[in-house]
Design brief:
It is built from six helices and 14 strands. It is α/β, with parallel strands linked by helices. Bound molecules: uracil.
Length: 210
């Protein structure tokens, strides 16, 4: 995956995203759609892993068959909304190792502060997929990737549902080596850092905490 930003234009992804954006979509529907869309996005984000071959026997004859090479992939949820993407991705990649990064924005400095971190071992040997549905200002995404790099991750992808030009530019500036995969590049941010047109607070939509 060489390009920095990939917008997944698959019709199923776009259709599901439209349903998720509607303000009267219920929590139950939002969750179901999020699970379905994250599975489709996971398909796109996992185009790259190296394959090797292994000798197997089909009912007809022996063959050299392709198999994934290397250590199990690491999936990192950026709390709390990242958790909403996990089920769908894990359905596709059930053997993935899972980690969590918790960040909050300090009200005085507006800088992201880490409050939780638990990541799989040997990140340097794994493809690492960081997930957060909303790439808005990019501040917390950049901080989460900083942290993953400090933990040794080298081969990182960032998966989100919606991105903004501001967030993408901020990520490209800080982490040009980290490709971003998203379902939509939205218009921009409002004065409170919400994505326009967006879908509101993703955590509230998926957890029903509005
Ligand atoms: N986080 C959200 O949940 N929604 C936005 O629009 C921006 C950040």
């Amino acid at each position: 995956m060489t390009q920095h930003l990939t917008v997944v234009t698959h019709p199923l992804v776009q259709h599901k995203l439209t349903l998720m954006r509607k303000k009267d979509t219920s929590t139950a529907s939002f969750r179901r759609l999020l699970r379905e869309i994250s599975l489709l996005l996971a398909y796109e984000v996992t185009r790259e892993p190296e394959l090797t071959t292994t000798e197997i026997e089909t009912p007809m004859c022996p063959m050299q068959a392709p198999i994934l090479e290397g250590k199990k992939l690491a999936l990192i949820s950026i709390l709390r909304a990242g958790n909403g993407l996990m089920d769908g991705i894990l359905e596709l990649i059930p053997a993935a190792r899972v980690g969590f990064v918790g960040l909050y924005r300090d009200p005085a400095t507006l800088k992201p502060v880490q409050y939780y971190r638990k990541v799989p071992s040997q990140l340097d040997a794994r493809m690492t997929i960081a997930v957060d549905p909303m790439l808005a200002t990019g501040n917390s995404s950049v901080a989460a990737i900083d942290l993953l790099k400090r933990e040794g991750a080298r081969n990182i992808r960032f998966l989100c549902l919606l991105a903004t030009p501001e967030g993408v530019a901020r990520m490209k500036d800080a982490h040009p080596d980290v490709p971003i995969i998203t379902a939509s590049l939205d218009q921009g941010l409002d004065d409170h850092g919400y994505i326009i047109p967006g879908l509101g607070d993703a955590g509230d939509c998926m957890f029903g905490t509005k």
